[in-house]
Amino acid sequence: MAILWRWMKVVSMGLIAMAAWTAGATSGFAQPMDAHQGARAAAPFALALRPPPAGGTAPVIAVLALNEGTETTDFLVPHAVLQLAQVGVVEAVAPRAGAVTLMPALQVEVPRSFAAFDSVYPQGADIVVVPALHTEDDPAVLAWLRAQAAKGAVVVGICSGARVLGRAGLLEGRRFAGHWYDRSTLLRRHAGAVHVPGQRYVDDGPVVTTTGVSASLPVSLALVETLTGAERARAVATALGMPSWGPAHRSERFGLSLAHVGTLSVNTLLFWRHERIDIPVVDGVDDVALALAADAWSRTYRSRAEAVNALASPVHLRSGLLLRAAPPDASATTVLLDRDMQPACVLDHSLQMIGQRYGAATRQWVATQLEYEDPEVRCGAAGPSP
User: Fold this and answer.
1) Tell me, what's the pLDDT at 206?
2) Phi, psi of 232, deg, nearest 5
3) Helices 258-269 + 360-369 axis angle, to 10
4) What's the pLDDT tens digit per position in 148-201?
5) Looking at residue 273, what is its pLDDT?
6) Please, what is the end-to-end C-alpha distance for the chain in angstroms?
7) pTM of this prediction?
8) Nearest to 171, CA basis, from 197, 138, 151, 145
9) What stretches in the chain show pLDDT beneath 70?
10) Whose CB among 5, 105, 129, 364 lies 3.0–4.6 Å from 294's, allowing a Cys bridge?
């Protein structure tokens, strides 16, 4: 036991040192908005992004995944929202058709490979959505992304998807948003790139980038507005439970603090208190609600979410994607998705339950990872702790 505690102390001190270095490295890049940036933060995103439909047909939107690891919300939310809004042809694509492991939770089946997509759409996609990927410099992904950009696609990097765009050579000399953790890396890597604080999404010609994971919802609605108009975007936003989707964002509030590292250290090292969270799923389960719940519960460093059903059989998400499910675990804590709750409200509800179960510090750490300004009251009080 003494050896274990010495090991825990060494690991914790290392994490604290890393946090202090990271906080110092990233905090210096958040500059106050000038008048031009302030005006843009209040302006409609739709004015900046109007890709012409390929061949005069409905726009083709590809939501990219890497089979070995793709961020859960970054991938599922845009795919689902754009499908729901009926903005055009929305295709999930990956280097290989088949299983895609999502991070930090879930696994889905993607029906089209890059090769199959190129065969069906030789003209390329009008828009390519790029989530955060486990490997930011995968050769197949970069080659395909460069080819799509060369054909005229608008490329949207969600969260750390900006790093993938950078590896593909698409960020040089451009304005960008990006997750708070990535700012210094992107500025160091890409000549002439300029970080724009105070905006959840930033467009610079054919390249769009966003802040952290939670920006996937507002940028998806901004794309809906661009492609179909404000009326359709408002209808979809109302169905989702999103009162607004504008670009304004208080980016200065986000960063890695010593308090966060303390929470991370304690939650990681007290491994005997870790638990599995089972989320029962059936055919037609809402992609957005499931993604937000599974993502939040899997970022506590105390718990890991799993989609389950009694037969451990795959189910179809509302968007049509096939979701793999595991058998329930008798020792797991079950968290039910409320079908009467608007999907966007599931994140608020999950954060409330996480706070009840693990404390306010863990709740704040999860919200910080997602770069989400937790409103605490927007969607009402949470139910009892699981």
Assistant:
1) 92
2) -65, -40
3) 110
4) 999 999 999 999 999 999 999 999 999 999 999 999 999 999 989 999 999 999
5) 84
6) 31
7) 0.87
8) 145
9) 1-56, 375-386
10) 105
**Domains in the chain with CATH codes:** 34-251 (3.40.50.880)
Longest alpha-carbon distance in the chain: 70
Asked if residues 267 and 362 have their Cβ atoms less than 8 Å apart, the reply is yes
Q: Which residues pair with 322 in a beta bridge?
A: 109, 316
What tokens were used for 186?
A: 């992107």
Contacts (Cβ under 8 Å, ≥6 apart) of 22: 181, 256
- The pLDDT value recorded for residue 204 is 93
CA proximity to 202, closest of 179, 229, 236? 179
According to DSSP, the residues that pair with 285 across neighbouring strands are: 317
Which pair of structure tokens corresponds to residue 128? 């390519």
> Looking up tokens 């990271």, which residue turns up?
22
Residue 291 Ramachandran class (φ > 0 left, ψ -120 to 50 alpha, else beta): alpha
Tokens of 265: 């250290």
Q: Is 169 left (phi over 0), alpha (psi -120 to 50) or beta?
A: left
**Which residues are CB-contacts of 311 (< 8 A; sequence separation ≥ 6)?**
327
Alpha-carbon gap, residue 107 to 68, rounded angstroms: 10
DSSP 139-161: HHHHHHHHHHHHTT-EEEE-TTH
H-helix or E-strand containing 263? helix 258-269
Q: Could you tell me if 278 and 333 are in contact, meaning their C-beta atoms sit under 8 angstroms apart?
A: yes
Task: Find where tokens 């795959």 sit.
Answer: 314
Q: What is the DSSP string of 53-114?
A: PGGGS--EEEEE--TT-EEHHHHHHHHHHHHHHT-SEEEEEESSSEEEEEESS-EEEE-EEH
pLDDT for the residue 62: 98
